[in-house]
Amino acid sequence: MVQSKKLTAGIIRNDRLMSDSRTIRYYDSAGQTRDAKDARPVEEQPSIGELRLDPLVNEWVAMAAHRQGRVFLPPKELCPLCPTTGELLTEIPESDYEVVVFDNRSPSLRPPMGDWALPDIAGPDTDLGTAAGKCEVICFAANHGNSFKDLSVERVRVLLEAWIDRTEELSQESFIEHIAPFENRGEEIGVTISHPHGQIYAYSYLPPRVMKMLEAATKYKNETGKILFDEIVHREIRDKERIVAQNSRWIAYVPYAARYPFEIHVAPLNPVADLTGLTSEDRDAFAPIALEVMKRLDGVFGIEMAYIAAWHQAPVRVGRDVMRLHWQITSVRRAPGKLKYLAGSESAMGAFIMDMRPEQSAAQLKEVVL
Questions:
Q1: Domain spanning 3-205: CATH 3.40.630.30
Q2: Catalytic residue among 178, 195, 197, 326
Q3: Does the annotation count 312 as an active-site position?
Q4: Is the pTM of this model over 0.85?
Q5: CA–CA separation, 54 and 65 (whole Å)
Q6: For the segment 48-106, what is each residue's pLDDT rounded down to a tens digit?
């Protein structure tokens, strides 16, 4: 059975069931028909993992032991994210696609059965919980050799619509508290499948960084009556020195206190809480600046930069009046052949030390000839 949904910009979403009853969603801009069947044998779904509290810092840790057996750096001819062709039966039954989203085969978080609640925090005596949530894979292109920067403006528009649609739909689940779409690129930061893709994690709790940002934003609003992130963007516009790219709807800059050798924040000039708040003008203007930023990043050293590109947005139920949407791109490469390792100070103490001033990396990004 195919279910269809009309989105903005003429994009259509078609849903189908995979052989093991997971859902795959096709996002298309040219009216494609999606009727290919998943011909793979049915495999048993992993059970839900555990959720344990680290009482030293009051942070939740998900235990997903079943992920030890997931696919690791398969050769191109066995890539599970390529379209199905001939005898290669992949996660995507169709022979071609624009953007697809499907439930992760080895998820860290899974929808719970029946009523669910996060255990009350009670120090070392906190009850064991289940790792409720949802993990989805989002593929940007059928071509195995492509990268985000190689996408067309039209394809990035489809990708953005998919991110927005998933945020909207996942927000309706009662057990979801925060939604984080992200992309990892490069073996240096842990990519296990070299195909242009990202993931969407929908958490049943607020991740530690979100909690910190929410606390800082709430405190600033209570003390000044202003929105912290808006003031940060105003400072970057005033200083100008760290701005990497800008158009009528978006701004990209290296933050004043960047933690990584290359870190870029991309934010809408019309501030919103999450992806669903973007106007049609915001959505149409995103692709040009996103592609420019990625091309500048790869152009700094003339090599593909390993990076993490993550959307930060307001939680589903709290902080929506003080939190702001932005796209954070971070790379640990500080020079050709040299990485910034997150070692003793960063990993053990959580105290970042930068080897270069943010103004220096901003200048390097701006100097790239496109």
A1: no
A2: 197
A3: no
A4: yes
A5: 18
A6: 999 999 999 999 999 987 665 566 667 888 899 999 998 899 999 999 999 999 999 98
